[in-house]
Amino acid sequence: MYLAYDMLQLRTSSLANGLLIQRQKWKSTTDDIADLTEDQLLDALKALEEHRKIEDPLIRRLLHDVESIATRVPGSFAQKLKLRAEIRGLIIRYGMPAFWITINPSDLRNPLVLILAGVQLSGDVFAAANSAIRETTATSNPVAVAEFFHHVCKAIFEGLLASNTGHVGILGDVSNHYGVVETNGRGMLHLHALIWVRGNLRFRTLRKRVLEDAAFAASMISYLEKIIIQGVDENVPLDPEVNLPPMPPSARDVQSDSEFHLRLSYDSNLVARRKQVHSKHHFATCFKYRVNNPGKDSCRFGMPRDLVPSPRVDQLGVIHLARNHAWINPWNPALASCLRSNHDVSWIPTVAKSLSLIYYITNYAAKDDVSPWQMVAKAALLKQSLEKAKVADPPTEADQRLRERGMNNFALRCFNSLAHDREVSGVQVASTLLHLPSYYSVNLWWLRQYIRAMTHPQQPQTQSVSGPLGEEACTYKAGDTAPVSLFDNYKWRGRHLASFTFFEYCMLVRMRDKQRATATDFDFDSVHPRYTTHKQRLAQKPAHVATVTFKGLLTQFQTAEDSISGGHPATEAILNDVAEILLGLFVPWHDLFAILGQFTTEENIYSTVWAIVEPTLAPHNREFAANIELLRKSKEDCQADAKLRTSARLDDDFFDRHIADLEEGSFDSESDEHDEVFQIQSEDFTAETLIAAYHTVRQAWSRELTITAHRIPALLQGTAQGRNMPHINPRQLAFSTASINDALGVRFLATSVLQNWERRLKCLASTKEDASTAEELNSSFQLDDFDQDIGQGVLQPMLVESDVVHSLQDRRSQLGENPTAASLVSLVGQDIPLNKKQQLVVMKILSEALAWADHPYDSSRRKQLLLCITGEGGTGKSQIPKAILAAMDLLERKDEIMLMAPTGAAADTIGGNTYHTSLGISINRLRKGAMASRVRRLWTQKTIMFIDEMSMLDLTMLSVINNHCMIARSLDRSSPDLFGGLPVVILMGDFLQFPPVRGPALWKEPREGNDEDVNGQMIWHRFKQVIILDEQMRQSDDPSFYGLLTRARRAALTQRDVERLNTKVISSLLEPRMECATAIAKLNSVRHQINRVQIEHFAITRSQSICIFPAEHSRIKTTNPTKTRLRAEDLLQQPDQGTKIPFPGLFLYTRDMPAVILTNICSRIGHVNGAIGTMAGVVLDPTGKSSFFRKYLAPT
């Protein structure tokens, strides 16, 4: 068998070498190799030892020739290198793989090996003898072992996994797989495989879905827990003296399904406890790649691993399955019972992790056992022998043979010497006939030559014969007429297949002899030299569709890219080079000439054209193109994935932007020419693209709504689910002032008016509201066109009115020269009702304020008051800051008070700001650089600070607020006073209401190792004065409902309470009484769906149109090529997501609809995040890209 294997290798390698030297350019290749010197080879060896690239083109040519010979030899290192290209081809076709499995069938114990070897055993009477026979058979019959391995792998892929069969297997609906066979230390076979699950392309958004949809996350965890086990059932006994049964339980016995399932579970756990547990003493392979440095002796398999009590989803959306055993490898119950040997099953959860793991897999699974260093070393030794033979005098027989063979067989002798030194097991020899199928191969360098020859025929083509790419299997010359490659076949494919892209052509079309042609085959173009002898056959079934793989370099700069640590760069030249490949693959060639001709002056013509063309491609081609670009990203994502785990920062620039931070003069020049027609001005999206994208988004919305309605029937109850989407034509995207009427609520205004409004808002945000200023602002608004007849002005009613000013003056006149806290409370109580306990609280705080009025920051003359006010909802906590604010206003000390809350809505309730705005705290809680001068000025005269909704405040945030107050007040951090030495600090809230978003609540223990939590707890413990308000004010007129709320607060609802609540459940969101009601949704996805349903219903009931505004996308500075490409439907389908995406991709508007503000605009007049109101109209920016369209709805 070994002799036959060696003869087969020598025969095949000789044939490959014979074909190689028959090429037209071989003479120049021979001369090049003959000119190689020993010094050149030694320099190349040194470069490889130092992990540098070989730059010498002659040596690279030699290595290429050796690989060309080895490619045709079964089981050679070059055939293993081809596996990487095939794996990449499957990634391009199917997207990201879902699972990575390792299979290691036990040939020593499986009875199938004996059957294949023709050996029969007489029962289990002689157990020891039978075991010896099994071991002897497995070690002496490699053919039987190879066949056994093949049958096991086939059974797993076709039976258990049901790969590409249309049936659901043990891992779900598997669309494809790719397995690579390797050998272990004793020469036995094992297999590593990538598994693709149908629908894998959605994994790009998997992490986001897991984070946002709790139900989906629970389903994913349930799915993974059924197929990947990271523990064992401790109730299954383990007796080391009892042999493991060779076969799984049989279903032949009479038993119920549950009983049989219990037996299977028992058996799989028994196998796992015997075969899946990693040795606590480890193995040699655990430290195979160990670095000989102190502290580097950890097991490369990560054993023992941390226990995970229960499955969880971390803050990045990664699922962590439960683990109750630190030394066990992940296993699958079906694989355990069927294989009865060790295996591994791993889930690839996220895109970033997928790219990292794919890069690792393609380098590990497709690794070669002959390195470039070995090839160069062999060549150096052989060259040395040739040089000695030339000068030998007299020559020996060996010298004579070397002289006679010459340079023609130099590469062949290099390969044969390498193959001769290679260790091969008997099972490997036998398994050469079980090779994996090959896929169609395309070389990208030749694709470039065809594209350039067609688009730039005046430029000379590359004819270098010494370059690394000159001797590919597919040859090309500009003047050839006879087709010698697939490129020529595509070029002359004929009019019937003219619409096919080159990538589609490679997947779907094959050339067939005319004698075997059918009526459905297609003719080539008449200029094709084989027009009379061959036809083109289109794939008729999925099995005929080929997977396209790429041989060669993806970009001509790849050698330079690989030399840069940290991943592939994304320079303009590289992006342009990749775009050239993508254009050649996914745009019909006859269209390229016309397209590229429009951009002849562009420096990076291909990347420019690709950015325009890509959004217009068919969806499947766009997916293929995206997958091709992922291949370049793999190395980069592998290295960036570790950083992703430790960095979850968000951009501060989009957080809590206040109008006071805007700079004047940042507006466009004034223009009164607003009567023109405003057309689409986007350079990326045409009107047709926007319309097509809207219909795609609309269909996605409809699908989401249908799915959600299964859980929330009230969402669709009463709607016309079958209503068709209206047809929109491009003219509906162009509007002028003549085409817009008052009923639509959309208007144009001059730029000067808009700039004036902007300045007014900034003035309101920065002006103190005293009487004279209020009257001045009020009168100035009446003299210009600030309201513009849109609901009688949305800002004017929020200003201080004259009667309120007079009332304030009257109250101040009643104070006298020396007001007391009691007199202040009495006066304030006339406007703000206070119960007895509220009056005592207000009086205590005002007494403090009066006592240190002349020396508020002298800590030696007053004590800092840290007060906590709590109580259930409706007990009047918010009345206290209102009363104190009114009292301090009477004292003309209103500016000393700072009102803060965690959210804009909560801050609006008490008339304050978020503490992010007030203290300049970013969303990631980090302070970059010095504190803004705006913040320092704001805190100059503050003496009393309220923080409402303390239940939403976590320990770390309390510490951060304290630190920022210290900086804002310029107080030394060593001071014993907290919060910058403010005399009074008051926390308000109810701990049974909303909890913190991030860290532990104030009453919880700090997280282990978190210093900020510890500091926050220390600060919280300083609040020793606590006042609990217990008199219910809000529900005082409804004692029955108050009793229900009290029992709900104590988790003691009665059946009668439940029945009462059920009577309040709505059957439809579209009931008349629900028109202006506020809906509270648990998930943002449901919020968006409710809003869309309500807007449509609102417009239909009023016979109004809905205006749909597409958002304008601003490119971000990035080196990631996929983020610089715009996809209309992907962008426009994005909902608002807080600071990350401040506005939705499509904004729906109809006149007078209820609305809520999602960002802080002007806190002084209540325009903050969470403020609600009515959409009175929309003003279009005359200098912007005013593109929108109307959706006409017929009334029901």
UniProtKB/TrEMBL annotation:
**Superkingdom of the organism of origin:** Eukaryota
Q: Which residues form the Helitron helicase-like domain?
A: 22-195
Looking up Gene3D superfamilies in the UniProt record yields:
P-loop containing nucleotide triphosphate hydrolases
All copies of the DNA helicase Pif1-like DEAD-box helicase domain together span 865-1038
Which Enzyme Commission number(s) are listed? 5.6.2.3
Xref: PANTHER family: ATP-DEPENDENT DNA HELICASE
What protein is this chain from?
ATP-dependent DNA helicase
Q: What phylogenetic lineage does the species belong to?
A: Eukaryota, Fungi, Dikarya, Ascomycota, Pezizomycotina
